[in-house]
């Protein structure tokens, strides 16, 4: 069979990894795909052109990315430049030229996926993006194909390795957030500007994609609620552990009667859940389907070779589909384009979860009764209370409460009233909880 | 698009689950697949015909399975009868009639898959078998497609739920094997004849399939080494825990320079590994690829609806491929048929693992030196030794040793010599160990 000709945009970390995988495993990949895959044309900055190994496997190299997407010899364009522009323009031009596209660009898909998929649909080409979510874990394939028989109920994922590394270090060593982050930056695990990772924006990009795939809704990044981990304190990690929980930064999407939840935030989960034991930079996605029950997918969520693993798997998939009738291909968002529905995404106020609450309250009779009274009036029931001993000379004590499930708006009202109590000092720490059991 | 017509063979547990999933999720599945899937013709025993719910969704029902595979209206035959015969004859006749086949029959694929795939290849049809390994977990899709870029190094899986349930109960509650098995049988988790599950035959069927998919070798069930869990004692579970290990019944296949290992046996694994925390009836498969690193796939390995989830996903896949050029489809065993190689499967004597050893030895000076001397002569190094206190009035003590990696044949020689020592009483308990870390 004819070889497949790749046009590769970007020879940075993932681009370099892709060259490595395509060259090192060329024979084995061809044994599977039934044809050779060769990089016919690549575009890279001069800096990357000099440092890339395996460059001799690349047919032609340029610094003009548009020359690659316009090259008539190229069958499949791999976009590994990242960011919105010129990635968006390049991908749209490749589509317009009738080429299939493989991308690892989560931000691009989360924000411009609807436009890109519509263009691809019209041209009868495929845009594959396995590498955009959870790196090497084939979670998009699992959702779109492996679980195609299921009514998906919810997904909860650890989909940012940097955040999970920080939380794991905080738990294992009792360290604080800023300390671990500084070290992670020094070691190169975290970016110089860590906002995307620790504030949950990167996870929200990925969750936006997962939610669309699970529920057949358009990509709506702007409706995904995002809360980071930068305010998690070592004492909350420790109190959670005492109560049998771990704190993970989860992306959660759930179908409810009222609409679809899309939210990224720190979450207490029971320590016996498998996903609670996913540590360090590893990612995992837990999917609950009505037929299959819970399934979990675990692996490296980033890195040159793991991400390249997903990129190249997409290339093999797309190569196989080159002769397929486009209407029989797996749809971009798992559901046929005319079957995407506008089920509303719930604002966070309408989302129902349980809560871990930590108050600092005066250690004096009657205080607890006042707090309990407000919670009762707001219809919030408490599952557990833990009062710590006051430190010597301290008049205030930490008070930990675990609530049953309640709407966020109602909890906000109750917390505002409790914070207004004279006996309660400072802001109440509030971390959402999920049982992840059904 | 035209609906897809299914011929369904068997309306027992999984057949009933398949009818449930196809009817309950019909709309959602059609939104994904772009066409309706309907059960045009089903064959079942009279007993099953009476108890099945959703039977009104089935076009025509018969007790003659051959009538279904000969029905010209049927596009895809789903074989859920189980066993070797007449399943094999039915599948081959369906293929001969030019129909695609979906099966959950692990025994059939492990023993007759080579013949079946060759026939399918010749006829240009697909035989899909996702449900044959690890129930609802889309592990076959992950191996064949999601990890297609990787040189697979090894796979280790908990692929029998009954065995994992028994080992979990033994660990959590200190119970003994026979006791838990009897309860599992009473609860319906274990078969009246538990041999297939507890002696590892069922797991070996599944491992045979995983090994072929990972390494591109023919299915060779007869070369898969199998050791069950019926001889695991509560004290070994407890000693393993003290040393930081859990005992799991694993199917392991690994590529080495000398050949491919294929083995099912109880295995000590470090308790911090994610797969060590897969408990109860759940399954998990850990796959190590050279690019992606370790990835793990977790979920229900059996049961009506989880298995049906995999069956129906295969139906959607096959339906999508109906118009594909057969040479572009995903090959049955992951590698193109002419790329299947005859890499030898290693006999267990040639397999290298670490070992947990439990001896019962006279509590007397010099005994340990004698044992250590034999191990040293055989070139076996010991990583840890733990000697227990003798029970009051006992002259013998349990002696636990963890060895470094060594070939099985060499360990067998050493153990035979140690068992012959006068100071050592009875048989030495030997459980293989794996780090599963690289």
Automatic annotation (TrEMBL), chains A, B:
NCBIfam families: PRK06349.1 (NF004976)
Active site: 206
Residues noted as binding NADP(+) in the record, renumbered to the chain: 9-16
Keyword Nuclease: no
Enzyme class: oxidoreductase
GO molecular function: homoserine dehydrogenase activity; NADP binding
Family classification: Belongs to the homoserine dehydrogenase family.
BP terms from Gene Ontology: methionine biosynthetic process; threonine biosynthetic process
UniProt cross-references to PROSITE patterns, sorted A to Z: ACT (PS51671), HOMOSER_DHGENASE (PS01042)
Domain ACT positions: 356-433
EC numbers on record: 1.1.1.3
Residue positions binding NADPH: 106
Xref: Pfam families: ACT, Homoserine_dh, NAD_binding_3
Binding site for L-homoserine: 191
DNA-binding is among the record's keywords: no
Catalytic activity: L-homoserine + NAD(+) = L-aspartate 4-semialdehyde + NADH + H(+)
InterPro entries attached to this UniProt entry: ACT-like_dom_sf (IPR045865), ACT_dom (IPR002912), Asp/hSer_DH_NAD-bd (IPR005106), HDH (IPR016204), HDH_cat (IPR001342), HDH_CS (IPR019811), NAD(P)-bd_dom_sf (IPR036291)
Pathway note: Amino-acid biosynthesis; L-methionine biosynthesis via de novo pathway; L-homoserine from L-aspartate: step 3/3; Amino-acid biosynthesis; L-threonine biosynthesis; L-threonine from L-aspartate: step 3/5
Protein name, entry field: Homoserine dehydrogenase
Protein keywords: Amino-acid biosynthesis, Methionine biosynthesis, NADP, Oxidoreductase, Threonine biosynthesis
